[in-house]
Specification:
The protein is mainly alpha-helical. It contains 15 helices and seven strands. The chain folds into two domains: about 180 residues, no CATH class; about 200 residues, Intergrase catalytic core (hpI Integrase, Chain A), CATH 1.10.443.10. Helix 8 packs antiparallel against helix 9.
């Protein structure tokens, strides 16, 4: 059998069923003659049904699709086993494959799995299960992705364990498999490193944030048609600790102006649906309320929303339809970061500008939480952030780290002379 080049197995949610009938023949044509075709089809069926359960969250669906797709590619075409025949030892070999995949399984850029052509969804020949990436700084410095430098992060490995364990639990509940080969891996430590102590939170410094929000204000004043929206987005991400997915419209939730609401005590709240499809109310500060008023007045609306108002919270530049997906919002935030770096460099803060190169949208949420735990009860911050426990919120409290470093700062290496 010739060297197998992976093909995409699962399309986006709205085309998942349509492409199923198209992809199965493609899969069958490349199977080894010893593979039980009926079991492969059943594998595919259960995988699709499992993925459909995550239709409420586009990002979660993508994460689960990625890991299950990788597993099936390896299981069918490399290990030559169906899901019900995989054992603990097979999964250990699969994890090793993920850490160091074949070179022809690695791409140098993210591409769509399928391409629309003549009413059909055709598999993209450039798609690969793994993609090598480089930092924003490296990209700006002119570096290009190199397949030889592919490396799977610890977070990515943890995701593989969590997602596939959940998948095999589902298969076991459906009585398709018996036992969970992922949970049976005893020596997880050879794949996953344990971290001692508190994990560092990636966030902006006070100086960086002050420059970022000031830059957003400058942009809004210079070009309100384009950047009043930018300013509101930056305020919302920091001031309400929003995840980017909580600003973008999806099948699960469309953020609207009416989701800002006032209670009987005249306190304002913002309702959102976040991670795990969990709805929560976020307390709205006076400063955030002022940011909302400014944005609405620019849009020609009343200063505060009426109950049930359906105006999209973040609309496209032209028209009144909400921004769907997170890519557009990431571009808006990145432009603000880029302009901020120019100002930092011009003012002589080159190191701060350099560090801002690595910043992502999610850093704004981390920064907002980190600033608030200094002055607010952690339980209040926990509930506004949508953390499942106070232990997660505690990671943002860095008083202990500061004290620990202060006590170490004057340690001597060379003994003092007496």
């Amino acid at each position: 059998m010739q060297q197998y080049t992976p093909i995409p197995l699962f399309d986006v949610l709205e085309h998942l069923d349509a492409t199923r009938t198209q992809q199965l023949p493609q899969v069958q044509s490349q199977l080894d003659s010893t593979m039980p075709v009926n079991e492969v089809i059943t594998d595919y069926h259960f995988s699709c049904e499992f993925l459909k359960a995550y239709r409420g969250s586009a990002e979660t669906f993508k994460s689960y699709r990625r890991e299950i797709e990788r597993l099936l590619q390896w299981s069918w075409f490399v290990c030559k086993k169906t899901l019900k025949n995989l054992r603990r030892g097979d999964m250990e070999i699969f994890l090793e494959n993920c850490i160091s995949p074949p070179k022809h399984w690695i791409g140098i850029k993210h591409v769509s799995r399928f391409i629309a052509k003549d009413g059909l969804r055709l598999a993209n020949p450039e798609w690969r299960p793994f993609v090598v990436s480089i930092s924003k700084k490296a990209f700006r410095d002119g570096q290009t992705p190199d397949i030889k430098s592919f490396q799977l992060s610890q977070n990515a490995l943890q995701a593989i364990f969590a997602i596939l364990s959940s998948f095999f639990n589902y298969l076991e509940q459906e009585e398709y498999t018996f036992g969970n080969p992922v949970s049976q891996i005893r020596q997880k430590s050879k794949f996953l490193r344990k971290h001692h102590g508190k994990r560092s939170i990636r966030r902006l410094s006070e100086l960086q944030w002050s420059y970022v929000i000031e830059t957003a204000e400058i942009l809004a004043n210079e070009n309100p048609q384009l950047h009043e929206r930018t300013l509101f987005i930056m305020n919302a991400l920091f001031g309400m600790y929003l995840r980017i997915s909580e600003l973008a419209a999806s099948h699960r939730w469309i953020p609207q102006m009416g989701h800002f609401h006032k209670d009987m005590d005249n306190n304002w709240w913002f309702k959102t649906v976040g991670k795990g499809n969990k709805e929560r109310d976020i307390s709205v500060s006076n400063a955030m309320l002022d940011a909302l008023k400014r944005y609405r007045i620019y849009l020609g609306l009343s200063s505060l929303p009426a109950p049930g108002e359906t105006t999209p919270l973040i609309a496209k530049t032209h028209g009144n339809k909400p921004i769907e997906g997170t890519r557009h919002i990431r571009k808006i935030v990145q432009l603000c970061f880029d302009k901020t770096m120019e100002r930092l460099n011009a003012d002589g803060f080159k190191e701060d500008a350099e560090m801002l190169l690595s910043a992502t949208v999610h850093w704004l949420r981390h920064t907002g939480i980190s600033e608030d735990v200094k002055i607010r009860p952690r339980e209040h911050v926990r509930d506004d952030a949508g953390h499942s426990s106070s232990a997660i919120t505690d990671q943002y409290i860095d008083i202990e780290l500061r004290a620990r470093h202060a006590s170490a700062r004057k340690k001597q290496i060379k003994p003092e002379e007496k």
